[in-house]
């Protein structure tokens, strides 16, 4: 065999060895990648299962609270946030928030689609409390297509033209409701069915209470609010007797409550590099079998999986 042929044979042999080594390395890499994907999917499944268990626990806590007390206040078990806790490599944290301690924007109108003067005035005072333009109120009325009329004439058919809100982030479609404005409002407002028009005075934040009761001394409201964890209001009459409203005394019964039926759950589950943030709305109603999840969001910016509450009672 000529030297050139021998040299070529050596080159080909080396090339074949290199190709075999590359193929083996590629196979090992693909196998490693596959195992990582399997492990990651298993971790995701575990995180989802822990999240599901957390929601079940929250529902059970709210059911227990309803069975043991006719009043909802901040000193109860549901109101205690769960700090980040680790067990077997899984970190879990969560909070429950009473959404009836906030102003329901859908309650600005009656079921007939007429503006409710009492609640419109309350919302405008809340805007003033937060140093936001009062023009936002008119912009929202126009967006929701709530007409001016006699709100006392109830009993008609539900409004078909009213543009009820389904989620708080729908405010971004309303003129003037910038992300900054929505963030400013968020701790004080919520979006619930139109018929949910009472606010729990045991859980409402002080700025909202000031907007709801302009004739009451702000210092009195702040002092009473600080005591609600232990010395809570047992009913609306107790609330009226302790804060002593003047001009608004008769109207308090039209909007105040010491009970709640809507709660928001926020949870975060982390295992390794996998994180699942979840938000869910829980409705508590003994006539419907206790407590149940109305909608659930998984992940930042996710849309609700289901939306079952009806704004037309």
From TrEMBL:
Question: Pfam families recorded for this chain?
Answer: T2SSK (PF03934), T2SSK_1st (PF21687)
- Localization: Cell inner membrane
Its chief place of residence is membrane
Signal sequence interval, chain numbering = 1-23
Sorted alphabetically, the Gene Ontology BP terms of this entry are: protein secretion
Q: What is this protein called?
A: Type II secretion system protein K
Instruction: Give the T2SS protein K second SAM-like domain ranges.
Output: 199-243
| Protein family | Belongs to the GSP K family.
Report if keyword Isomerase is assigned: no
Alphabetized, the UniProt keywords read: Cell inner membrane, Cell membrane, Membrane, Protein transport, Signal, Transmembrane, Transmembrane helix, Transport
Transmembrane helix listed as a keyword: yes
Looking at the record, the residues that make up the T2SS protein K first SAM-like domain are: 101-194
Species, as recorded: Paludibacterium paludis
Q: Which GO terms describe its cellular component?
A: plasma membrane
């Amino acid at each position: 065999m000529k030297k050139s042929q021998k040299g070529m044979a050596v080159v080909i042999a080396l090339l074949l060895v290199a190709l075999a080594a590359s193929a083996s390395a590629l196979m090992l890499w693909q196998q490693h990648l596959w195992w990582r994907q399997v492990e990651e999917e298993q971790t995701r499944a575990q995180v989802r299962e822990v999240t599901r268990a957390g929601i079940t626990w929250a529902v059970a806590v709210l059911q227990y609270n309803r069975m043991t007390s006719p009043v909802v206040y901040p000193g109860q078990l549901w109101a205690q946030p769960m700090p980040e806790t680790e067990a077997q490599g899984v970190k879990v944290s969560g909070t429950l928030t009473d959404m009836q301690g906030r102003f329901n924007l859908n309650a600005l109108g009656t079921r007939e689609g007429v503006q409710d003067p009492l609640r419109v005035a309350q919302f405008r005072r809340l805007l003033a409390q937060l140093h936001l333009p009062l023009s936002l109120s008119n912009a929202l009325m126009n967006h929701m297509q709530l007409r001016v009329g006699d709100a006392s004439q109830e009993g008609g058919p539900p409004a078909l033209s009213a543009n009820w809100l389904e989620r708080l982030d729908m405010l971004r479609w309303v003129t003037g409701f910038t992300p900054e404005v929505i963030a400013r409002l968020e701790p004080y407002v919520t979006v619930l069915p139109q018929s949910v028009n009472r606010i729990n005075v045991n859980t409402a934040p002080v700025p909202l209470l000031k907007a709801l009761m302009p004739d009451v001394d702000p210092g009195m409201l702040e002092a009473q609010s600080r005591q609600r964890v232990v010395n809570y209001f047992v009913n609306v009459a107790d609330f009226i007797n302790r804060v002593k409203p003047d001009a608004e005394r008769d109207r308090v019964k039209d909007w105040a409550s010491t009970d709640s039926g809507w709660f928001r759950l926020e949870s975060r589950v982390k295992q390794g590099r996998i994180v699942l943030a979840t938000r869910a709305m829980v409705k508590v109603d003994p006539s419907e079998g206790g407590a149940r999840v109305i909608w659930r969001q998984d992940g930042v910016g996710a849309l609700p999986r289901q939306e079952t509450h009806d704004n037309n009672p």
